[in-house]
Amino acid sequence: MKRIIIAGIIFGLTRAASLAAQVGPSATPCDSILREARVDSVAITARAYLARHDGEPLPPRVRLLLAEAILARFEAPRPLQLPVFAPGPAQLRILRRETLGGDSLTIREPVVYGQYAFSIRRDGTVGTVSTPIPSLVPGFDERVTAAIRGTVADSVAATVGHALNQDSLVLDLRITTGPDESRLRIPPATLFVATFPRLRLVDAKPVAPLPLPRYPEDERDEGGDGEALLRVVVDASGAPIIPTLEVLHATSPAFALEAARTLARYHFTPAHVGGCTVPQVVLLPFWFSLRP
Fold it and tell me: Which among 159, 203, 235, 246 is placed 20 to 30 Å from 223, CA to CA?
């Protein structure tokens, strides 16, 4: 398997500064402020998970052959700019109307997360490639998409196609530098290993008062408590970037849908270093109950 080692990686201070500049004029140069906020560096592995879109098992040999063919064709953008920072812990009981705690400095590293959907046909050709969850890394999604399409030139794609017992198979490729995607229950492949600088910053947080969700009508007959955990990127202006939204866990689709609708009404104080704001991943838990 191809293993790309990127040393001394450029993590996108200029990009983060330009995102911050969208909020309004700043009295200080954000690039220098962000560089001064650097604490240390940490080695992080970007992992790729390949699975069937419908959740059914993918034969290990098919997954291995296809993943290797895709990763062998992937070339990371140079310089690799990572403008989005890793999340802090999920806040507890965030749906209650309460006064949120004050700001505190934390140490966070840049993070990559993206999801790509495509189909392999029986004749070995690749169907439309889409990006359900964009990584927000300049040039990254285009490089992944090109690598997926490039498998048509490999005999591996034809081999996989001939092994199908159906006309086409829809697959998801997930790439992350965050925690292991244990919910996928499949082994990942290494996309690249890189050294990322960590910065001392103030985490993004929702602005109170927090919108309260409706208890879903579809769940009222059962009347049980429900929950949902969402992941979303909050941009440098404090708005959730809806295309990056993913449901990590939910008691039912109805609870997940209502949590997503409520999230769309949220506004955040963006993550920031001094007067410079940066995008950050945020984990948002939602609880539902008919009990008083």
Answer: 246
| Residue ranges making up the domain that contains 183 | 4-288
Task: Give the separation between CA 101 and CA 157, rounded to whole angstroms.
Answer: 53
Q: Is 16 helix (H, G, I), strand (E, B) or coil?
A: helix
Cα-based distances in Å from 188 to 42, 54, 206, 228: 20, 18, 33, 25
E-strand ranges in 62-161 read 105-108, 113-121, 130-133
Residues 6+ apart with CB under 8 A from 270: 23, 204, 234, 235, 236, 237, 238, 277, 278, 279, 280
Model confidence pLDDT, tens digit, residues 100-131: 556 678 999 999 999 999 998 877 788 899 99
Coil/strand/helix, residue 98: coil
For the full predicted model, state whether its pTM sits above 0.70.
yes
Name which of 160, 171, 172, 3 is nearest 74 in CA terms: 3
Cβ atoms of 69 and 148 within 8 Å: the answer is no
How many domains are there within the chain? 1
Whole-angstrom CA distances from 164 to 59, 229, 249, 260 are 10, 35, 31, 36
> What are the DSSP calls for 50-74, one per residue?
EEETTS----HHHHHHHHHHHHHH-
Is 241 within 8 Å of 233 (Cβ atoms)? Answer: yes
Q: How far is CA 270 from CA 19, 149, 198, in A?
A: 11, 36, 18
Residue whose entry in the numeric block shows the structure tokens 């098919």: 62
